[in-house]
Amino acid sequence: MTVIVSLGKFLGWIGFLTLFHSAYSTYEHLSYLKAVEKIPNEMPIEITVECLISIVIFAISIIMVAGPLKPILMKDEMTKKTIDKVDIRPNFNTFNHRCRSMRSLVN
Amino acid sequence: MTTQNQASLYVSEKIVQNVKTITFIRSSMSAITGSAAGILGLTGYYGFIFYGITSLFTSFLIWSAKAQAKPGLYFRNGLDVWTEGVFGGLFSYVLFWTLLYGIVHVYD
After folding, report:
1. Helix residue ranges per DSSP H, chain B
2. Separation in Å, CA B18 to CA A25, A47, A102, B42, B90
3. Among A14-18, B15-19, B47-51, whose mean pLDDT is lowest?
4. In whole angstroms, how far apart are CA A24 and each of A54, A67, B88?
5. Interface ipTM
6. Mean pLDDT of the B80-91 span
7. Per the CB < 8 Å rule, is A51 touching B36?
8. Domain layout of chain A by residue ranges
């Protein structure tokens, strides 16, 4: 379980780096277009693809990091519990035990 | 079935825990897809269409990878896996969308 979580965190860092890189590439490209005085009409396909791939990487990492869903049916919950756990009730605890009468016998 | 019986049919702590897990996945994904939308420079309706597509993708991932295609085991209503937290995620999506759009495309 922990292996999956740490792998997911590692993937999350990769996704963050690719997302950051695509953001910086977009910024660079826009400032280049401004420097050569062209009108920015379309982004290069590499940046778009990198951005979309980083979304997929992030999705996989988040799925790995998030804990598993738990079955909510009481039926499934009860199969995991032992009868001692279900049956324990404070109402039937006995605090008077036989030691008191035994002591009078011994004396 | 009366409400009393239905309440004892489910374990409420597990329901809360599942909703928490789903909310974590949804809000992280909407923050990240919002950042991506801002980087891609989407404006207007295209951004909301992008949110619809990516949240459908997220729902499919939750349904297939987290709920093992049997959402009835983990949610009281099996359709919850597709709708839980979609509108809550929209707000963080718009937040990150505008933030990244502003950083990358507007200010230089």
Report:
1. 3-7, 12-40, 45-61, 80-83, 86-101
2. 38, 36, 55, 33, 20
3. B15-19
4. 14, 32, 29
5. 0.84
6. 86
7. yes
8. 2-70
- Whether residue B67 and residue A69 make contact (CB cut-off 8 A), yes or no, is yes
- The pLDDT tens digits for A2-46 are 888 899 999 999 999 999 999 999 999 988 888 888 877 777 889
Domain ranges of chain B: 10-106
Residues of A in contact with B35 (CB under 8 A): 19, 23
Residues of B in contact with A72 (CB under 8 A): 10-11, 14-15, 18, 73-76
Give the integer Cα–Cα distance in Å for B11 and A79: 13
Interface check for A35 against chain B (CB to CB < 8 A): the answer is no
Exposed/middle/buried for B59, CB within 10 Å: 0-12, 13-18, 19+? buried
At A71 the pLDDT is: 81
Q: Which residues of B32-46 are buried (b: 16+ CB within 10 A; e: fewer)?
A: bbbbbbbbbbbeeee
Instruction: For A68-99, write each residue's pLDDT tens digit.
Output: 888 888 777 777 777 777 777 777 777 777 77
Q: Which residue of A has its CA nearest to B62?
A: A63
If pLDDT is split at 50, 70 and 90, which confidence band does B2 have? low
Q: How many CB pairs under 8 A join A and B?
A: 94
User: Rounded CA gap, B75 and B23, in Å?
Assistant: 13
